From TrEMBL:
It comes from the Bacteria. It is an enzyme of class 2 (transferase). PANTHER family: RIBOFLAVIN KINASE, RIBOFLAVIN KINASE/FMN ADENYLYLTRANSFERASE. This is Riboflavin biosynthesis protein. Coiled coil: none annotated. It catalyses: FMN + ATP + H(+) = FAD + diphosphate; riboflavin + ATP = FMN + ADP + H(+). SUPFAM superfamilies: Nucleotidylyl transferase, Riboflavin kinase-like. Pathway: Cofactor biosynthesis; FAD biosynthesis; FAD from FMN: step 1/1; Cofactor biosynthesis; FMN biosynthesis; FMN from riboflavin (ATP route): step 1/1. Its EC number is 2.7.1.26, 2.7.7.2.
C-alpha cells in the first residue's frame, strides 16, 4: 500500500476549516494516500460525560463528507476510557505508525493523548525520521476561524446564514421518516417528520426554506421543501421535530425512508396560533415565500 498523508481531528460538521486541512494534505503530498483519523464517540462524552457538545454530523454523515472532501480512507478510533488514557507515544504507535505516514497535518492548537499532553511539537518529536508534522494555521472564513462551536452557536441563535457560510454547504439534518400526529395531511400540508436525538444539534425553532432528499423508495430524489423545526406550539406539542413538507405534493410515500433535509434559508420563527385555520393560512404564505427563496 502507498504511504499516507494523515489528518487528525474530530471533524464534526466537516466545515470549511476541516476541508482546508484536507486540501492542504492533498497539495503537500499529492502522491500519498489521504487518510482522515477521527474519533467516535466524541472524546468529551468519555472524558467529561454530560459536557459533550451537540453534534453537527452523525458518524455516517461525517464519513461521507470526509470522503467527498478527498479522504481515501477514514480511520475511526473507538474512543473509550482506555484510549483516553493512552500517552501521546501510545497514540502514535497504535494509530499513526500502522498507517505508514509520510506527513501528518493537524490544526494549530491540536492536542492529543492523556490529559491532552500531546501537542504538534510532541507529535513531531515522536515521528522524527518517520514523517513530517505540520501544524496548519486555522483557515479563516471571516474575522475568526471556522469552528464547530461557532457553527453550533450560529445554528442555536437562528443565524443559518453564518452557519452555512462556515460549513461551506447548507446545514443538513438526516434521519428516518417516522409517523407523526397525522394532522399535516388534514391541513393540506403533509410533513415528513424526523425525531431529533438528544445528541444532535438542530437549528433554532422556526420555519426554513430547503430541500428534502429521499435516499430510496418510489420518491427517491431531491425535492423543494418547507421545513418546520419545533414542538408544534399551536397543538401544545412537547417533542422537538424536524418536519418537511415537499412543496406542491400530497402523494409522497416517505414513512421509513432515510432522508436528508438541507436548510437553505431562515424564513420566520414558530408562532402559537389559536387554531388550525390560522396556521393553514400562514403555511400557505410561507410556501409562497419559500418558492421565491428557492427560485422554483
Ligand atoms: C411551513 C410550515 C410552517 C409551520 N409553522 C408552524 C407554526 O408557526 N406554529 C406551529 O405550531 N406549527 C407550525 N408548523 C408545524 C405544524 O404544526 C405541523 O406540521 C402539523 O401539526 C402537522 O404535524 P404532523 O406531521 O405531526 O401531522 C408548520 C409547518 C410547516 C410545514
Ligand atoms: N408533500 C409531502 N411532503 C411530505 N410528506 C408527504 C408529502 N406527501 C405525502 N407525504 C407522506 O405523508 C406523511 C406525512 O403526513 P402527515 O399527515 O403529516 O402525517 P404524520 O403526522 O405521520 O407526519 C409523510 O411521512 C409522507 O409519507
Amino acid at each position: 500500500m502507498s504511504r499516507s498523508v494523515v489528518v487528525i481531528g474530530n471533524f464534526d460538521g466537516v466545515h470549511t476549516g476541516h476541508r482546508w486541512l484536507l486540501e492542504q494534505a492533498r497539495l503537500r503530498e499529492p502522491g500519498a494516500r489521504l487518510v482522515a483519523v477521527t474519533f467516535w464517540p466524541h472524546p468529551v462524552s468519555v472524558v467529561r460525560p454530560g459536557r459533550e457538545p451537540k453534534l453537527l454530523t452523525d458518524p455516517s454523515q461525517r464519513e461521507r463528507l470526509l470522503r467527498e472532501a478527498g479522504a481515501e480512507q477514514v480511520v475511526v478510533v473507538s474512543f473509550t476510557t482506555e484510549v483516553s488514557r493512552w500517552s501521546p507515544a501510545e497514540f502514535v504507535d497504535r494509530v499513526l505508525r500502522p498507517l505508514d505516514p509520510v506527513r501528518v497535518l493537524v490544526g494549530e492548537g491540536f492536542t492529543f493523548g492523556h490529559r491532552a499532553a500531546g501537542t504538534p511539537d510532541t507529535l513531531r518529536e515522536l515521528l522524527r525520521g518517520v514523517a513530517e508534522v505540520d501544524a496548519v494555521a486555522l483557515h479563516r472564513a471571516d474575522e475568526a476561524p471556522a469552528s464547530s462551536s461557532r457553527i453550533r452557536a450560529a445554528l442555536a441563535a437562528g443565524d443559518l446564514a453564518t452557519a452555512n457560510a462556515l460549513l461551506g454547504r447548507p446545514y443538513c439534518f438526516s434521519g428516518t421518516v417516522v409517523v407523526g400526529d397525522q394532522r399535516g395531511r388534514q391541513m393540506g400540508f403533509p410533513t415528513a417528520n424526523l425525531l431529533v436525538p438528544e445528541s444532535m444539534a438542530v437549528p433554532a425553532d422556526g420555519i426554513y426554506a430547503g430541500w428534502l432528499t429521499a435516499r430510496s423508495g418510489p420518491d427517491a430524489g431531491r425535492h423543494p421543501a418547507a421545513i418546520s423545526v419545533g414542538t408544534n406550539p399551536t397543538f401544545d406539542g412537547v417533542q422537538r421535530r424536524v418536519e418537511a413538507n415537499v412543496i406542491g405534493r400530497t402523494d409522497l410515500q416517505l414513512y421509513g425512508v432515510e432522508v436528508d433535509v438541507e436548510f437553505t434559508a431562515w424564513v420566520r420563527g414558530q408562532v402559537r396560533y389559536t387554531g388550525m385555520d390560522d396556521l393553514v393560512v400562514q403555511i400557505r404564505a410561507d410556501v409562497a415565500t419559500i418558492r421565491e427563496v428557492l427560485g422554483i
